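re: that chain from earlier
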Amino acid sequence: VWPQPARRDGASENQAVAAAAVHDPAGAEAFEDKLVGILNGGAAYYGIYATADGGRITLCAIEPKFWRAFCEAAERPEWLGRQGEAMPQEALRTEIAALFAGLTLVEAVARFGPADCCFAPVLGLSEALESEQTRGRGLVRRGIDNLWQALFPVVVDGERPRSRKPLKDLQGGG
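^ sequence. v structure.
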């Protein structure tokens, strides 16, 4: 898993691997492999891309069915067989980046949103708080003091979490 949690001596597992690679050139290759994995920038099908108007989108088409749906929505059937290319997939990432750079955020959402391809726009905080998904889950909402609250993310006995009392009420102050 990348990144690794910190160790007691203050170093992370990855820092230890990097340090070992300096002292052991054979270890450098193992460390380099960690830097180009699926979830840390090596895979073109898993990342954040810029749109023509400065927006950002996420593509997380790790499973073949999502990659296929993405390629179909992109109208790029020649990309289908490229999901398994060696990491880092720089050439494919450049091609996908060019595709999104030619679309506005609204155009990208209209084109890829309906496809089952693990695509989503990157939302600002206010947009995220007002999104259908956030509202539907009811886990972030305004309390009686009109401040945003992130609520406990569990439904217990069919009951959603309740809003918390304002801090001043909990402190006994007024």
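The helical segments are 13-23, 25-34, 64-74, 90-101, 105-112, 125-129, 132-137, 167-170.
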